[in-house]
Amino acid sequence: ETGVTQSPTHLIKTRGQQVTLRCSSQSGHNTVSWYQQALGQGPQFIFQYYREEENGRGNFPPRFSGLQFPNYSSELNVNALELDDSALYLCASSRAAGGPYNEQFFGPGTRLTVL
Amino acid sequence: AQSVTQPDIHITVSEGASLELRCNYSYGATPYLFWYVQSPGQGLQLLLKYFSGDTLVQGIKGFEAEFKRSQSSFNLRKPSVHWSDAAEYFCAVAGMDSNYQLIWGAGTKLIIKP
């Protein structure tokens, strides 16, 4: 069983640019959640996708957007990058959305640096 | 407001010694509680979780945690740490108030002395 994978591992961008991060969910999982983890902080929930539809969003501006594809892989897009967007971006997949019983399995993350 | 507090940013423990990592939460509804571990270059891994029932829960890698409703705490313990336990540990809470999305503490970095 393949775990959650994310690409790229590291990324450096400049302010104002746009970035796309990718996530492949674990086999059999139809739900993907994205988190931002700033240095020295716990993860912050960005949004969740369930069967290609957004299924909940945290306190992030609209320039953070996402997609989920029919194979349940997902993308996180961030427009107009700001210095504060520098963080580790984590993707997690689960068998279903809703409720705490669906354990989330995390990828290793993408480290984004905005200069 | 929903929040999770991990009071210790770093903890240093000698190998073989016992460990307790503290976690306090503020949550209106019945909380579901979790402990995750994050090692460098690896994803967050679930150590254990509490939903209901016995307030002492056992997890992987020899960890356990005790839910104390009166103290709003969910502390993580291990009787004897190994050098491989060096990592960052995160406590998280979820429930109806957050639409079951995880709310995380800031983490505690565990350092093991040889």
Which descriptors would you attach to this protein?
heterodimer; A: 115 residues; mainly beta; 7-stranded mixed sheet; 4-stranded antiparallel sheet; 11 strands; 0% helix; B: 114 residues; 6-stranded mixed sheet; 12 strands
Description:
The complex is a heterodimer of chains A (115) and B (114). Chain A has 115 residues and is mainly β. In chain A, 0% of the residues lie in helices and 50% in strands. Chain A has strands spanning 5-7, 10-13, 19-24, 31-37, 44-50, 53-57, 64-68, 74-78, 87-94, 105-106, 110-114. The relative contact order of chain A is 0.33. Chain B is mainly beta. In chain B, 0% of the residues lie in helices and 50% in strands. Chain B contains no helices and 12 strands. In chain B, the strands form 3 sheets. In chain B, strands 2, 5, 6, 10, 11 and 12 form a 6-stranded mixed beta sheet that branches. A 4-stranded antiparallel beta sheet of chain B has the order 3-9-8-7, with no helix packed on it. In chain B, strands 1-4 form a two-stranded antiparallel sheet. In chain B, a hairpin with a 6-residue loop joins strand 5 and strand 6. Chain B starts with a strand and ends with a strand. The mean pLDDT of chain B is 93. The interface between A and B is medium-sized, with 25 and 25 residues.
